[in-house]
Amino acid sequence: MGGSGLLLADKPRGVTSFDVVARVRRRLGERQVGHGGTLDPLATGLLPVLVGEATRLTPWLMGLDKEYVGTVRLGAATDSYDAEGRMVAEADPSSVSEDAVRAALGRFVGRVAQRPPAFSALKKDGKRLYERARAGEEVEVEAREVEIHEIDLLRFALPDVELRVHCGKGTYIRSIAHDLGCALGVHGHLAALRRTRIGPMSVDQAVNPFD
Predict the structure, then answer these.
(1) What's residue 1's pLDDT?
(2) Reduced 3-state DSSP string for the chain
(3) Could you list the active site residues?
């Protein structure tokens, strides 16, 4: 069929961003299809899909601010920083207060140094970090500067805390979950994540490509 344009997909949980691209490619009969910012299989929400000549917009999309709603589960750390990983440490989070969470979150707002997860798509020496980690290699990930504009505590219901995060490019919400658990002294990982906005685009405008 062919054509060009920007489609806003609401990615369901359990599929990859590439699965969404493949679905759109088959439906439209267009080979030149890409997306504007990977979501992990665990995550749901807004995934811009670029078709035809619109794939040239990819760098612009990557640079836009993003907004997420995520659930951090306190009391356990995993090697991937999310619920799909192997548990590597645990502690009792029952003594954590809402005030302590709010105080700890304040440390992560602004231009901050963040260490991405070892299980990420970043490359080191030409190989993706998650490939090295899955092969059993010791992966040392260097911290890098990211900008986090705002973090709101939406819900406090131990062991879970729900956050809304407004951030710049390159920010890992999984790292925020892990670092929050460390700051509180009880460990933590990302249990659920939904991307709600990229720049002016909202998930409210998106459709499930598998419906």
Answers:
(1) 45
(2) CCCCEEEEEEECCCCCHHHHHHHHHHHHCCCCEEECCCCCCCCEEEEEEEEHHHHHHHHHHHCCCEEEEEEEEECEEECCCECCCCEEEECCCCCCCHHHHHHHHHHHCEEEEECCCCCCCCEECCEEHHHHHHCCCCCCCCCEEEEEEEEEEEEEECCEEEEEEEECCCCCHHHHHHHHHHHHCCCEEEEEEEEEEECCEEHHHCECCCC
(3) 40
pLDDT digits (tens, 9 = 90+) for 154-187: 999 999 999 999 999 999 999 999 999 999 999 9
For residues 69 and 204, the answer to whether their CB atoms sit within 8 Å is no
Rounded-to-integer distance, Cα 172 and Cα 70, Å: 11
Q: What is the pLDDT of residue 117?
A: 83
Task: For residue 187, give both structure tokens.
Answer: 């460990």
Please identify every stretch of the chain with a pLDDT value under 70, giving residue numbers as ranges: 1-2, 118-140
